[in-house]
Design goal:
single chain; 175 residues; alpha+beta; Glutaredoxin; 4-stranded mixed β-sheet; 6 strands; globular
Length: 175
Protein backbone atom coordinates (compact mmCIF):
# COMPACT_ATOMS: atom_id res chain seq x y z
CA UNK A 1 0.00 0.00 0.00
CA UNK A 2 1.16 3.49 -0.82
CA UNK A 3 2.07 5.80 2.07
CA UNK A 4 -0.37 8.59 2.80
CA UNK A 5 0.67 12.14 1.99
CA UNK A 6 0.65 15.09 4.37
CA UNK A 7 0.61 18.23 2.24
CA UNK A 8 1.60 21.44 4.00
CA UNK A 9 0.92 24.64 2.06
CA UNK A 10 2.61 27.76 3.41
CA UNK A 11 3.01 31.35 2.23
CA UNK A 12 5.83 33.75 3.13
CA UNK A 13 3.46 36.62 3.99
CA UNK A 14 1.41 34.48 6.40
CA UNK A 15 2.23 34.91 10.10
CA UNK A 16 0.87 31.50 11.11
CA UNK A 17 2.92 29.92 8.30
CA UNK A 18 6.10 31.56 9.63
CA UNK A 19 5.36 30.19 13.10
CA UNK A 20 4.66 26.75 11.61
CA UNK A 21 7.96 26.88 9.71
CA UNK A 22 9.87 27.54 12.95
CA UNK A 23 8.21 24.52 14.61
CA UNK A 24 8.08 22.13 11.67
CA UNK A 25 11.09 20.03 12.71
CA UNK A 26 9.57 19.43 16.13
CA UNK A 27 6.26 18.43 14.53
CA UNK A 28 8.08 16.01 12.20
CA UNK A 29 9.79 14.46 15.23
CA UNK A 30 6.39 14.02 16.93
CA UNK A 31 5.11 12.16 13.85
CA UNK A 32 8.17 9.89 13.82
CA UNK A 33 7.91 9.27 17.58
CA UNK A 34 4.24 8.31 17.13
CA UNK A 35 5.30 5.78 14.47
CA UNK A 36 3.07 7.29 11.81
CA UNK A 37 4.38 6.51 8.36
CA UNK A 38 3.62 9.04 5.65
CA UNK A 39 5.12 11.17 2.88
CA UNK A 40 5.49 14.88 3.51
CA UNK A 41 5.07 17.43 0.72
CA UNK A 42 5.78 21.04 1.59
CA UNK A 43 4.51 23.68 -0.81
CA UNK A 44 6.03 27.10 -0.17
CA UNK A 45 4.35 30.03 -1.92
CA UNK A 46 5.66 33.59 -2.13
CA UNK A 47 2.33 35.01 -0.93
CA UNK A 48 -1.20 33.98 -0.05
CA UNK A 49 -2.31 35.38 -3.42
CA UNK A 50 -0.05 33.00 -5.35
CA UNK A 51 -1.57 29.83 -6.78
CA UNK A 52 -0.03 26.36 -6.65
CA UNK A 53 1.70 25.51 -9.93
CA UNK A 54 -0.59 22.98 -11.67
CA UNK A 55 2.39 21.77 -13.70
CA UNK A 56 3.94 20.51 -10.46
CA UNK A 57 0.86 19.52 -8.40
CA UNK A 58 -2.66 18.43 -9.43
CA UNK A 59 -5.07 21.29 -10.18
CA UNK A 60 -7.56 19.73 -7.75
CA UNK A 61 -5.10 20.42 -4.94
CA UNK A 62 -4.66 24.04 -6.04
CA UNK A 63 -8.44 24.49 -6.06
CA UNK A 64 -8.72 23.17 -2.50
CA UNK A 65 -6.49 25.80 -0.85
CA UNK A 66 -8.79 28.13 1.04
CA UNK A 67 -6.60 29.31 3.92
CA UNK A 68 -3.01 29.23 5.18
CA UNK A 69 -1.26 27.28 6.44
CA UNK A 70 -3.15 24.32 5.01
CA UNK A 71 -2.40 20.82 6.27
CA UNK A 72 -4.14 18.20 4.15
CA UNK A 73 -3.84 14.45 4.62
CA UNK A 74 -4.44 12.62 1.33
CA UNK A 75 -4.66 8.83 1.02
CA UNK A 76 -1.59 7.51 -0.79
CA UNK A 77 -3.57 5.76 -3.56
CA UNK A 78 -5.51 9.00 -4.24
CA UNK A 79 -2.29 11.03 -4.46
CA UNK A 80 -0.70 8.47 -6.77
CA UNK A 81 -3.83 8.32 -8.96
CA UNK A 82 -3.79 12.10 -9.35
CA UNK A 83 -0.18 12.05 -10.55
CA UNK A 84 -0.85 9.09 -12.85
CA UNK A 85 -3.29 11.28 -14.80
CA UNK A 86 -0.45 13.60 -15.79
CA UNK A 87 0.02 17.14 -14.57
CA UNK A 88 -1.27 20.40 -15.99
CA UNK A 89 -4.46 22.45 -15.77
CA UNK A 90 -6.61 19.59 -17.07
CA UNK A 91 -5.73 17.33 -14.13
CA UNK A 92 -8.53 18.32 -11.83
CA UNK A 93 -8.38 15.21 -9.65
CA UNK A 94 -11.00 15.58 -6.95
CA UNK A 95 -9.56 14.96 -3.49
CA UNK A 96 -12.61 16.37 -1.68
CA UNK A 97 -14.23 13.01 -0.81
CA UNK A 98 -11.15 11.48 0.79
CA UNK A 99 -8.95 14.33 2.05
CA UNK A 100 -8.78 15.21 5.71
CA UNK A 101 -7.91 18.81 6.52
CA UNK A 102 -6.43 19.88 9.85
CA UNK A 103 -9.02 22.11 11.57
CA UNK A 104 -10.99 22.30 8.36
CA UNK A 105 -13.52 20.79 5.98
CA UNK A 106 -13.98 20.94 2.24
CA UNK A 107 -16.75 23.39 1.42
CA UNK A 108 -19.39 23.07 -1.30
CA UNK A 109 -17.13 24.98 -3.71
CA UNK A 110 -14.27 22.48 -3.17
CA UNK A 111 -12.17 24.90 -1.09
CA UNK A 112 -10.98 24.22 2.43
CA UNK A 113 -12.84 26.07 5.16
CA UNK A 114 -11.20 26.58 8.56
CA UNK A 115 -13.39 25.44 11.45
CA UNK A 116 -10.71 25.47 14.19
CA UNK A 117 -10.65 23.07 17.08
CA UNK A 118 -7.27 21.41 17.60
CA UNK A 119 -4.00 22.88 18.84
CA UNK A 120 -1.33 21.93 16.33
CA UNK A 121 1.47 22.22 18.88
CA UNK A 122 0.07 20.31 21.87
CA UNK A 123 -0.01 16.86 20.31
CA UNK A 124 -2.95 17.90 18.16
CA UNK A 125 -1.21 17.04 14.89
CA UNK A 126 -0.56 13.42 15.86
CA UNK A 127 -4.07 13.09 17.32
CA UNK A 128 -5.57 14.46 14.08
CA UNK A 129 -3.43 12.20 11.86
CA UNK A 130 -4.52 9.10 13.79
CA UNK A 131 -8.22 10.00 13.78
CA UNK A 132 -8.12 11.01 10.10
CA UNK A 133 -6.57 7.70 9.07
CA UNK A 134 -9.31 5.83 10.97
CA UNK A 135 -12.21 7.77 9.40
CA UNK A 136 -14.57 5.77 7.11
CA UNK A 137 -13.99 8.00 4.05
CA UNK A 138 -10.24 7.73 4.40
CA UNK A 139 -10.34 3.97 4.98
CA UNK A 140 -12.55 3.50 1.88
CA UNK A 141 -9.97 5.33 -0.24
CA UNK A 142 -7.22 2.94 0.80
CA UNK A 143 -9.20 -0.31 0.54
CA UNK A 144 -6.88 -3.19 -0.30
CA UNK A 145 -6.53 -4.11 -3.95
CA UNK A 146 -7.31 -7.78 -4.67
CA UNK A 147 -4.22 -9.93 -5.08
CA UNK A 148 -4.46 -11.32 -8.61
CA UNK A 149 -2.11 -14.05 -9.84
CA UNK A 150 0.76 -12.84 -12.04
CA UNK A 151 0.07 -12.67 -15.77
CA UNK A 152 3.47 -14.14 -16.58
CA UNK A 153 4.64 -17.20 -14.75
CA UNK A 154 7.90 -16.84 -12.88
CA UNK A 155 8.42 -20.51 -12.14
CA UNK A 156 12.03 -21.73 -12.68
CA UNK A 157 10.90 -24.19 -15.37
CA UNK A 158 9.37 -21.43 -17.48
CA UNK A 159 12.18 -18.93 -16.86
CA UNK A 160 14.82 -21.09 -18.57
CA UNK A 161 14.06 -19.54 -21.96
CA UNK A 162 13.79 -15.80 -21.41
CA UNK A 163 12.72 -15.34 -25.04
CA UNK A 164 9.30 -16.66 -24.02
CA UNK A 165 8.63 -13.63 -21.83
CA UNK A 166 6.69 -10.93 -23.61
CA UNK A 167 7.37 -7.28 -22.89
CA UNK A 168 4.55 -4.98 -23.87
CA UNK A 169 5.30 -2.05 -26.08
CA UNK A 170 2.62 0.42 -27.02
CA UNK A 171 3.03 2.41 -30.20
CA UNK A 172 0.54 5.15 -30.88
CA UNK A 173 -0.98 5.29 -34.34
CA UNK A 174 -2.05 8.44 -36.07
CA UNK A 175 -5.72 8.61 -36.80
Amino acid sequence: MSQHVLVIVKAKNCGACTFLEKNLERLKQEIVAAKISLRLKEINLASTAERVDVNVYPAGLAKMIGYFPLLALIPGPEWDAAFAKGLGPNNNHDFSKTVSIFNGVVGADGRAVNIGGRDLYAGGLVEWLRSAMESPNFAAAVAPVPNFPPLISTSPAEKKDSAQVCTWRFISRRR
